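This section describes the prediction task in plain terms. A model, or a person checking by hand, is given the sequence of a single protein chain and must write out its three-dimensional structure as a string of tokens. No templates, partner chains or ligands are provided. The sample shown here is typical of the held-out split.
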Amino acid sequence: MALSVEDIRLLRAGSAPGQLELIRDMTLGTDVWLDPFTTHCLDTYIPAGGCKFKLLVGEEGSGKSHCLRAIEDRASQRGYVTLWMSARTAGSKLCDVASLYRLITENLDRESLSRGLASAVGAALGYGPSLYDGRSALLPYVIEEGFDAPDAMREIRITTARMLRQADLGASFFTCANTLLRDRLLQTDARAVQLAWKWLSGEKLDPKERRESGLFEVLNRTTARRWLDGLLKLVVLGGQKGIVLLIDDLDVLHERNPETGRFLYTPSSNKDTFELFRQLIDDADVLRHFLIVVAGRRSLIEDDRRGFKSYEALWMRLQTGLVPGNRFNPLSDIVDMDLHLTAQGPYFVEKLAAHLPSVFDRYGIRKRSAAMGGTGSDKDDPVGMAASPASPKRLVVETLHAGGIQEPSEVMS
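The expected answer:
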């Protein structure tokens, strides 16, 4: 199995790779938190219609990013729509629910959603997955049952409308979903589908397009939560279990630009991000089948001026997850990754050190021989190593750099 150049560079820098299979193979000690979390949230609470906000905090190298990727892997395997993002690159997209909605739809698999919705209609008409998978028009299948074309089209339209009404969609989302399904099931109007996807993505339609499509509602701060609710219902109706949103590197909220010395996020941007999280927490009873997990360093909850404590409306909702003590609580909504690492036991680092070389070897990452210039010196270490000597991050980097390893181009060749 070969890794991409980008994944190897991420590993060398001490960051979690994007290849989820590698994340799965690298992971040890899942019984402490990942397994209980998976059972409670991914297998039970979220599929039943729950909404949950989780915060991972810990020092550099404690495994926050790795756990986010592991959650992404497990959620993908269980049929969730997953979105991983870094707060370092998200910028203004974390300022309000409307921007967050657009970010989610930008990464939405349109074909998968259309196929899932069409399959649901097919199943309602008695065409299970073995007969109809939603990839093509349903009309020919119904005609084969002895219906003439007008009756078959009417039967499909009635079943589609009934299914969408039962999903309790708002008027605009009903119209949008009906347009998408009409084209997929009957293949009638490609232009209408184009406008429907444009509207569903949060783009503004001009007056002519609005009249043509029947989609008049506009995405803004007032309507954003209703739109997010409608999107979640469509995703679940299409056969997915929900949406899992993973946001990493939240410590950027209180970091400075090394060149200018200014904060990367202004105080106003910080408050907008905190208000976004506050709204998502308060809307737990409205936004069903939705999991949000964010991660950052401990300063997020310890910094009184730029951390969560600086926004009282959010801090009041989060501080109930902070229970003083030195024992790890796997059910808390604020997950202490430093205590999580301690709970792994005194020999966890040794187990990980013995495990990683064999994993890297299976993926074609091998040490350079002396003839290739491997030195293993400290100057090869690109991380700066603020991480603890016993942290998983340091261990990964040292495993890769001990004796020198092949450059990405050498591995891929």
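For orientation: The first strand starts at residue 51 and ends at 57.
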